[in-house]
């Protein structure tokens, strides 16, 4: 069972869903209303899937369960949300990176595009004493890299701010 109230994982889930939505927007061909619906459907699917697998006292516990993965096949949570807006499997594979790993963990959301890409942090929150969560400053432009289907420059730990 998860050790934290469901609302507390919403920031992490919202960040992850916003990132996938931005990937779809950058690829083009999907309307804004469809993108809004996709994001909402993905958030709900993630919340339902993760709600009993959220362990803030052990953030890495269950990380594999919460990992969204595209590896020449589509992650079922993304595919489910895309189906709600009429995007089929083949079209989704055309629009999103061929290889994407997105880790949605308590206090942190990270991604990697490509098997050998660097890990980029989308969201990080202090893990101690009730401090407010904070978005990281955009220190490196990972955006340009994911638009062309690559990860951030190697051997660095980069961040990217995702806004709602």
From TrEMBL:
It comes from the Eukaryota. This is BTG1 protein. It comes from Panurus biarmicus. Residues 96-115 form the Anti-proliferative protein domain. One of its GO terms (biological process) is negative regulation of cell population proliferation. PROSITE patterns: BTG_2 (PS01203). Belongs to the BTG family. It holds the Pfam family BTG. GO terms for cellular component: cytoplasm; nucleus. InterPro entries: Anti_prolifrtn (IPR002087), BTG (IPR033332), BTG-like_sf (IPR036054).
